[in-house]
Specification:
The complex is a heterodimer of chains A (320) and B (586).
Chain A (H helix, E strand, L loop, with lengths): L1 H9 L1 H18 L4 H6 L5 H10 L6 H13 L13 H36 L4 H15 L2 H15 L17 H39 L2 H8 L4 H26 L6 H6 L5 H10 L3 H29 L1 H4 L2
Helix pairs in contact in A: 2-14, 6-7, 6-9, 6-11, 6-14, 7-9, 8-9, 9-11, 11-14, 13-14
Chain B lengths: L2 E2 L26 E2 L26 H10 L25 E6 L14 H7 L7 E3 L5 E3 L2 E6 L5 E6 L13 H15 L1 H7 L3 E8 L2 E6 L20 H4 L19 E7 L3 E6 L13 E6 L3 H9 L5 E2 L7 H5 L4 E6 L8 E7 L9 H10 L2 H8 L4 E3 L23 H10 L11 E8 L3 H12 L3 E8 L1 H10 L5 E7 L4 H4 L1 H4 L18 H12 L3 H18 L2 E7 L1 E6 L2 E2 L13 E2 L4
Parallel strand pairs in B: 1-2, 3-12, 3-13, 17-18, 17-19
Antiparallel strand pairs in B: 4-5, 6-7, 7-9, 8-9, 10-11, 11-12, 13-21, 14-21, 15-19, 15-20, 16-20, 22-23
Helix pairs in contact in B: 3-4, 8-10, 15-16
Classes of the chains: A mainly alpha (320), B alpha+beta (586).
């Protein structure tokens, strides 16, 4: 197991460097210029040239790449053109909001999806089975921005149950419990939207996997031994059904930081996904590259964790 | 010896110092404007900084008290320009302003980007500020005068102004700001003044003289907080201006002080109790909340989570108009751009738009009324030429108009030799546009299809569209929002003068060359007397629709929306909140 872990960890640095080069090339292939947004309207040629030189954008692309790689490998991801701040600080500043949103959604969608999927699979043809199946089909097809706006209009606009936007009420001046309650109140709709979007996939995978497992011989044996149905379902069937679900959730963890961009934009949630969205629009190269890097590293480690979870769930992997 | 403007209070249709009928004292060129007294509560000339406004039992008493502080300077002019007095005696409270984009940094002197100015302009001042007709009013400069030859502007600065850190404001701050910050980093001010300004002198701590190589007319309109915000020398001198930490925690002189900036979420400002304009500001706190999705912002306004929207999406206008808690107001100007015209750019570098008949045919084929109603939801008006009709002093309606007339378009295209081919099409053109113009582009494609012109839409994200049209010039038709700015010299000239055919955004994208127009724009810039300048701009407006380098589609006039208990917002200016107050505090 230790050697397996070590081997996987040694694969990380070359993968990250490869990703850095790829990301750098891709963002610079996109048409546009960071100065259009940075300078605003009405600049003359000399101003553009001076600003380009200041930001190092006048250097040949390979030179820019080498400088960037040299910086990134020592932990310096550059400085945001727009925010006048180190990119790493900017990214770390947004991580908590995104982790709160995505983490809540991931936990919620996983618990709900696995539970409903398992229960529905145990009662094939029941109302719950058919209803959950139909609803998951709809949710899987719904675009995030549409669902978000729908929930906004109904629950924030018509019913007035939740705030429309943001993470904290703009008029709130205190902290402590009031702040906690306020954040939780703001969290419900965006996290709900994101959870609904993930729920469909988790449900369908669990549902399918549990159904297949329930048809296995060892389940028949367990039933023949007279084990209680609940024990068979949750201890034997569910555990053996979780491998594909873990794979999908692992994939979600990888994109946890940037995958909520659409929901963050709709709900004005001040997270990393929105930072990425704005950085792409304004061609904030260092910020885009920084977020790509963080997400890439997250994905690499999420895959690693997924493999370790496999080993925990399936002894065949562990002892292979 | 000084002479006073007949338009004391500067509430006229013309800027002070240019008003007809001014009585000039012999031997001097200095004309004095008195501070605009609009909705202030004062007792005498200096008001205590506390928020109490008691002691003035009636509006009339308050008015008399107000003018008493200006005797003898203002009394002769008071009756005609009585200040509007607020009905509320409840200063304080918080206002939440929704902004669509994060400001990034908060120094308005190093960028012309709207998202920065929308927020930061409330923390700074220019030498002047604009009234609702965009006429210059005193701000950091109490008064000014122009030399007879139009080459020197002398400004007398307000005394007792302090930066938010308590240091005094002086003429040295003005000189430093222009020489070391604005002329290096503020794109429009740099482009406009760099080659014409001969120098800035500060004979004493409260006098600034701008000297020009030639007579220069538009200076006053370049000095508000959007075009010429003044920053503190003691904070910036000797530092790397663009990397100075104060850009993220600004120290200004404006009505509000910086409190907090949470990138991506909000900027919080607090009342400046030492503001140099007596009785202002009224509000305690201002929160600029970043809400990128316009529909979310509208919902937040309806729910009372925010109080003010800079822009309202067209489809939401009827809903907000029906909402009794919300006020909708039109504003032709603002920190995001003033007097803007959505303009179709013909690429004159290549066929078919190198031919005037084709450009005229397109003008007849495009139904701008339909665009106005169906795409712009009547937010604006059909443009007639390069200068917006709301810039009344420079605009003339006396121009050739090209109404929607597909038959005439067909006739012109036939005359130009563009007859339908085997596939039924006369010609094919590419129309490069940002995705924000998708609906406009579809209507134009439909209109042109009716005269058998095939339009290939190239829809790009904004940044990519700007590069394709202005830098790579790889397009037949393009579209952009060109803003006139507070003066035609700032925003109009760049589109038509031949020396501005350059690979930079919002330059002369059509590549239009007309020596006569070049000469007229140069003359307008150096003609100080406004009536003569206006005549030159009228002439330009008569020439351009005849040669048609662009098709001026719609003068956009954005709606601002705000909760009805908020008053005296300066919706046309950067310093939106300087005089704002709420009927009830929250």
């Amino acid at each position: 197991m230790g050697r397996y872990l070590l081997r996987r960890l040694l694969q990380v640095p070359p993968v990250v460097v490869g990703l850095l080069v790829l990301n750098f090339t891709l963002i610079h292939l996109a048409p546009g210029d960071p100065l259009y947004f940075l300078v605003g309207e009405g600049g003359d040629e000399s101003y553009y040239a001076a600003m380009r030189a200041r930001l190092g954008l006048d250097r040949p692309l390979p030179e820019q790449l080498i400088r960037y790689l040299a910086g990134a490998l020592t932990g310096d991801l550059g400085r945001s053109f727009r925010y006048n701040e180190p990119v790493l600080a900017l990214i770390l500043g947004r991580v908590p909001a995104t982790l709160l949103l995505s983490g809540t959604a991931l936990v919620g969608s996983t618990l709900a999806g696995v539970w409903v999927g398992t229960v529905a699979a145990a009662r094939p043809g029941s109302f719950l089975d058919r209803a959950a199946d139909a609803l998951s089909g709809v949710l899987a097809a719904v675009p995030g921005f549409w669902l978000g706006q729908l929930l906004l209009i109904v629950f924030a606009g018509w019913l007035g149950l939740f705030p429309v936007q943001g993470m904290v009420s703009p008029r709130l001046t205190g902290g402590g419990w009031a702040l906690l309650v306020d954040v939780a109140h703001h969290l419900v709709l965006p996290a709900g939207t994101l959870a609904f979007l993930q729920l469909a996939l988790t449900f369908r995978l669990t549902h399918q996997s549990v159904r297949e497992t329930l048809a296995e011989d060892f389940i028949r044996t367990a039933r023949a031994k007279g084990l209680p149905p609940g024990l068979i379902l949750y201890r034997h069937a569910l555990r053996n059904s979780l491998l594909p679900v873990v794979t999908v959730i692992g994939g979600h963890v990888g994109t946890l930081l940037a995958g909520a961009a659409v929901v963050e934009v709709v709900f004005a949630w001040p997270g990393l996904g929105r930072l990425l969205y704005e950085a792409v629009l304004t061609r904030g190269y260092p910020v885009v590259l920084g977020i790509f890097l963080v997400v890439s590293v997250m994905t690499v480690f999420a895959n690693l964790l997924t493999d370790l979870a496999y080993a925990y769930l399936d002894p065949r992997v562990r002892y292979a | 010896m000084l002479a006073y403007s007949a338009q004391a209070g500067c509430v006229g249709a013309r800027p002070c110092g240019w008003a007809a009928g001014n009585r000039k004292a012999p031997g001097t060129s200095l004309l004095i404007c008195k501070r605009d007294p609009t909705p202030l509560y004062f007792q005498g000339r200096r008001h205590s900084r506390s928020r109490n406004v008691k002691g003035l039992s009636t509006a009339k008493e308050a008015q008399e008290e107000f003018w008493a502080g200006f005797v003898p300077l203002a009394r002769p002019f008071a009756p005609g320009h009585a200040p509007r007095l607020p009905v509320s005696t409840h200063p304080g409270g918080t206002i939440v302003v929704a902004v669509t984009s994060d400001p990034g940094q908060l120094n308005p002197a190093i960028t012309t980007a709207g998202p920065t100015h929308v927020v930061a302009d409330n923390m700074f001042n220019g030498l002047i500020q604009f009234d609702e007709n965009l006429n210059p009013q005193p701000s950091l400069a109490e008064s000014w005068g122009i030399s007879p030859d139009g080459r020197a502007y002398t400004f007398k600065l307000a005394r007792g102004v302090r930066w938010h850190d308590g240091k005094p404001f002086t003429a040295a701050d003005v000189k430093f700001t222009f020489e070391e910050v604005l002329l290096k980093f503020h794109a429009r001010t740099k482009a406009g003044l760099e080659n014409v300004l001969a120098g800035i002198d500060t004979p004493d701590d409260y006098t600034v003289v701008f000297r020009f190589r030639e007579p220069y007319a538009p200076l006053l309109r370049r000095l508000d907080v959007v075009e010429g915000p003044i920053v503190p020398r003691h904070i910036y001198e000797g530092t790397d201006i663009l990397k100075n930490p104060a850009n993220n925690r600004p120290v200004g002189s404006g009505p509000f002080k910086f409190v907090e900036y949470v990138p991506g979420d909000r900027v919080v400002l607090g009342r400046n109790d030492d503001y140099f304009k007596p009785g202002l500001p009224h509000l305690d706190r201002a929160v600029f909340k970043v809400i990128p999705q316009p529909s979310t912002a509208v919902l937040a306004l309806e729910q009372g989570e925010v109080d003010y929207l800079w822009t309202v999406p067209g489809p939401d206008i009827p809903r907000l108009q029906a909402n009794p808690s919300v006020v909708l107001a039109k504003a032709p100007a603002g920190p995001g751009g003033s007097f803007c015209i959505d303009t179709l750019i013909f690429n004159l570098r290549r066929p078919p738009f190198d031919r005037l008949e084709v450009r005229r045919a397109f003008a007849h084929a495009i139904n701008r009324r339909q665009l106005l109603e169906q795409v712009y939801f009547n937010q604006g008006r059909i443009a007639t030429g390069p200068i917006a009709s709301t810039m009344t002093w420079a605009y003339t309606p006396d121009v050739t108009r090209y109404d929607y007339n597909p038959d005439e378009a067909v006739r012109l295209l036939e005359a130009a030799g563009y007859r339908p081919g085997p596939d039924g099409k006369r010609l094919r053109v590419t129309f490069v546009h940002a995705s924000t113009y998708a609906r406009t582009a579809e209507v134009i494609r439909d209109n042109l299809g009716r005269v058998r012109v095939e339009v290939e839409l190239v829809t790009l994200e904004f940044n990519a569209a700007v590069e394709r049209v202005f830098v790579r010039t790889d397009f037949d038709l393009g579209i952009a929002s060109y803003c006139n700015g507070p003066d035609p010299e700032i925003g109009v000239t760049r589109m038509y003068v031949s020396f501005n055919i350059k690979p930079i955004p919002f330059s002369n994208g059509a590549a239009y060359v007309n020596p006569q127009v070049d000469e007229l724009f140069a003359r307008a810039a150096t003609t100080v007397e406004e009536a003569r300048r206006a005549a030159i701009y009228h002439e330009i407006q008569r020439i351009l629709p005849g040669t048609f380098p662009y098709l001026w589609l719609i003068e956009t006039e954005g709606y601002r929306a705000f909760r009805k208990d908020i008053r005296d917002l300066r919706i046309w200016a950067g310093d939106l909140l300087e005089r704002a107050w709420r009927e009830q505090t929250r």
